[in-house]
Amino acid sequence: MGIKALDYESLNENVKKVQYAVRGELYLRASELQKEGKKIIFTNVGNPHALGQKPLTFPRQVVALCQAPFLLDDPNVGLLFPADAIARAKHYLSLTSGGLGAYSDSRGIPGIRKEVAEFIERRDGYPSDPELIFLTDGASKGVMQTLNCIIRGEGDGILVPVPQYPLYSATISLLGGSLVPYYLEETANWGLDINDLRQSVAQARMKGITVRAMVIINPGNPTGQCLSEANLREILTFCYRENLVLLGDEVYQQNVYQDERPFISSRKVLMDMGPPISKEVQLISFHTVSKGYWGECGQRGGYFEMTNIPPQTVDEIYKIASIALSPNVPAQIFMGLMVNPLKPGDISYEQFVRESQGILQSLRRRARIMTDGFNSCKNVVCNFTEGAMYSFPQIRLPPKAIEAAKKAGKVPDVFYCLKLLEATGISTVPGSGFGQKEGVFHLRTTILPAEEDMPAIMSSFKKFNDEFMEQYEDNWSHSRM
Amino acid sequence: MGIKALDYESLNENVKKVQYAVRGELYLRASELQKEGKKIIFTNVGNPHALGQKPLTFPRQVVALCQAPFLLDDPNVGLLFPADAIARAKHYLSLTSGGLGAYSDSRGIPGIRKEVAEFIERRDGYPSDPELIFLTDGASKGVMQTLNCIIRGEGDGILVPVPQYPLYSATISLLGGSLVPYYLEETANWGLDINDLRQSVAQARMKGITVRAMVIINPGNPTGQCLSEANLREILTFCYRENLVLLGDEVYQQNVYQDERPFISSRKVLMDMGPPISKEVQLISFHTVSKGYWGECGQRGGYFEMTNIPPQTVDEIYKIASIALSPNVPAQIFMGLMVNPLKPGDISYEQFVRESQGILQSLRRRARIMTDGFNSCKNVVCNFTEGAMYSFPQIRLPPKAIEAAKKAGKVPDVFYCLKLLEATGISTVPGSGFGQKEGVFHLRTTILPAEEDMPAIMSSFKKFNDEFMEQYEDNWSHSRM
């Protein structure tokens, strides 16, 4: 027999080219160690519930009732569920056509898209059209669908921040496009310099690449910075001048841990700018139920909103969404609950506020503990996590460590992270998985371990790191002893 | 401003090429009419709950408890949930790492993949490896991932039955591959003739296409036939000789309405054939929670199982699955419940059997009512629905109707289906959406409307059809009156 279609040699090259470090070598090794009985702290993915964060009670009550609608006719239902959860379950079931077991419209349930539009209008102060909002199985699926429409071949470039969340690099590889990197400046708190951006576009054009879109992640992943309004204006002006679609990854909009730069949406800034920019720049914004204080990653719920996208294109995106029939319906209900939360006076309101504020305030404290912890370590410097869920410390590896990594056949930060994993059980992602400047090394960890475990985790990290640095530092007198 | 990246003119051509009739013109028109207040019977998609099928109680109880795990500590839980549902919820929660809100492994929860493997072993009599089973957001997503690995460009061909479920044609277009049709023979009860298959491959090769894979849908969609063991052996021998991956779409394996040809899996036949074929033919089989007597379409749960796929390729598929992090977790639990059902003696067993058998037996009766109904109509002939969820009658349109369609700028069967929709509210899919021989016309309808509504629907269809035929038949004497 010759080579078969699913032999490695004959697979689609774009598939093989994809790199996805968040679930890469480190994660696979961590899974192995876990199987062998080692206690692993998975900080490789922003997966709050996996690290003990409790789900918010009210939305879970509502979705449980929607899954078991026969409970609504049970005289005992009031013993297990509050009246507002029962009312909400009836509301969402009335928006479906056949409950949670029926495919919805491929764009999502119309009534929930309406609630999303109302949320956006309250948030931004501008009306939003439910027909331009599509619900998706997590934000990632929306990003993939959008890029699929934009990328026609390797001559099409997408501007992506570096360091970046590898969803973008992976999807661009898979679709056979070209990633055009623009570097975030670590010494300027991971700020974005428009001059750098201009240079990136110019360099790409020299190579014959048509730059078609720009991705921003705000708050940043893995870098944790929050973009200022002024910066967003510059970006939108740039997109206008360069004729770029802006993809606004705003999944961390609820995760902000400082007060100087609250979250502001790309869409609000775009609308504030007025014509011609507000009428011309094509923008797609993404949101999710996986982040914030919800952390409902496993439910896979998200949406995207389209601004200045012509109807014919909206129809094409609808058609593509139709191939997989519909996003999962339970997560659509979570999205409804997220954008249309309880109001003061509702029976469950106080519990909801207590739970959600408890999570957010704890995340704020953990962001601080982690940054301080990293900065107390030898050869480690770390910007404060202004938002999102990650810490992205720079690890200044001594030349001898880099040499040892080369001998072991590993990228230096992979080498460091593997050693960290073996020594402490802390499963991180090497900075090389997100992109970084030549010769500079990082790791990404989430700020999600339980607050009470944080001090022990950080001191275990510090112990490992400082010993590692000592071992590999060019300490001549030490090595001659 | 010039053309922008998301203007229709500049979209990815593969996106524009995609056709997806199940949610196409007919569906859009039906949605409009519904908005205007007309009562629509949606038989365009196999979406049982949307047409009133009740979900099975036990799995819904289990998943509701998994969504609201705090209920498990409530002393009143026993008033609303039976003990076996409580035990099952605890079991599935123990298999997750963080409940339904945490991303699972991108391949799905290991413990549930093990239950799937045990199900396959019981079904086929051969062991199955959980490491070669991936859980997905519905079977469609698995098909799309697989084709993404196989298709490298337009020189790669995939053999697809015609008529076919348009997931295949749409995905092949989107990925830029070539669909190589093989025709099912309507007069032989939609059977598959290996000689035809050989001819299709030869013709594709003449055009320079490398045929890499073959799709079978068993039981058939839209055609409803069940493949015999002898036919499956021929197909597998053909795949062996021609070096083709076999994609076995077996999502309707529980939906069989005759006793002569029970469902038999491609994998069992492959294993039965022994070496070299059983060791050589690469097979990927798909299953779902959306069909059968479950009909849990909106939950989006599926799996695929890989046979004779090398580990390096499995790793690549794992990597691609990782980009979207994980399939939704609630649907993974539905899959667990489907493959590991209640056993005699369990508290909820009798109710479960009553509900599931009630659905299956009613579907069997409905398949018969529908076939008989179509065959009683003027110029309509219809094979019996042996399996799956669809009826696919041939509509013999008179020349005058074809002419009228041309005048209206419509494909003839689209013209007929639109008239049917306007007259009766029955929303079907024209046969041209699935592919059919030149000059032959069909429509697809599901057999899913409630059994008690069936007689009225079929007589409303008959009334429309017979009047339509009369109107367009070349009845000279009549037209001179």
Automatic annotation (TrEMBL), chains A, B:
- What's one GO BP annotation on this UniProt entry? L-alanine catabolic process
Which InterPro entries does the entry link to?
ALAT1/2-like, Aminotransferase_I/II_large, PyrdxlP-dep_Trfase, PyrdxlP-dep_Trfase_major, PyrdxlP-dep_Trfase_small
Q: Which cofactor does it need?
A: pyridoxal 5'-phosphate
Q: What Gene3D superfamilies does the record point to? A: 1.10.287.1970, Aspartate Aminotransferase, domain 1 (3.90.1150.10), Type I PLP-dependent aspartate aminotransferase-like (Major domain) (3.40.640.10)
Q: Which reaction does it catalyse?
A: glycine + 2-oxoglutarate = glyoxylate + L-glutamate; glyoxylate + L-alanine = glycine + pyruvate
Q: List, alphabetically, the Pfam families matched.
A: Aminotran_1_2 (PF00155)
Q: Which UniProt keywords apply?
A: Aminotransferase, Peroxisome, Pyridoxal phosphate, Transferase
Q: Please give the GO cellular component terms listed in this UniProt entry.
A: peroxisome
Q: What is its main location?
A: other
Which biological pathway? Amino-acid degradation; L-alanine degradation via transaminase pathway; pyruvate from L-alanine: step 1/1; Photosynthesis; C4 acid pathway
Q: Which GO terms describe its molecular function?
A: alanine-glyoxylate transaminase activity; glycine:2-oxoglutarate aminotransferase activity; L-alanine:2-oxoglutarate aminotransferase activity; pyridoxal phosphate binding
Pinpoint the Aminotransferase class I/classII large domain residues. 84-449
What is its quaternary makeup?
Answer: Homodimer.
Q: What is this protein called?
A: Aminotransferase, class I/classII
This protein's species is Corchorus capsularis
